[in-house]
Please model this.
Amino acid sequence: MGGHREKDEGDAALLRAVAAGDSAAMAALYDRHAGWLHTRLTRRCADPEVVREVLQDTFVTVWRSAGAHRGEEAGGWLWTIAARRLIDARRVQERAGRLETTPIDATPSGVEPAPSAPSAEERVLAGLEYGDVGTALDRISPELREVLRATVVDGLTTRETARLLGIPEGTVKSRAMRARAELRTALAQLSPSPMGGPA
Model:
């Protein structure tokens, strides 16, 4: 059916049409991406009702904000939205659980820092599902892979990753460092040009 590049260009054209209010393009985009998004969400959340809501919210967000897509790989952009929606859904559940036992005014404070621009390494890692990087990713430990997917592919903060995976923030940081080191080693074995060369 044509290569990965053609698919990316097709996605970009669909997103431009969606931004212009084309509902047929929206349906086509949904048909292309809903299946794998559902699968990945299901791996992270056992509640099918939550998965269904998150998937729906993701495409509502895409419909409203397709104009904000800046040409990055569409699958990665969609997954970042979906992962954030999943975090939001978990927050709502946690809050509902806490409301039964705590006063209403006991809302958590703390503002997340603004995400910094992705480094060259992160841009490489953003293609994690594909090509050599995907192959290298399969060679690292599953618990490290989860952290790398959450922090780099999903674009989540350390706190959000800790909440998503149910582990302490310190563990997220140490696993992320180990994951990057293992990934570099695996990539070096797969390809002669190291990832960390001069920019």
The chain has a mean pLDDT of 77.
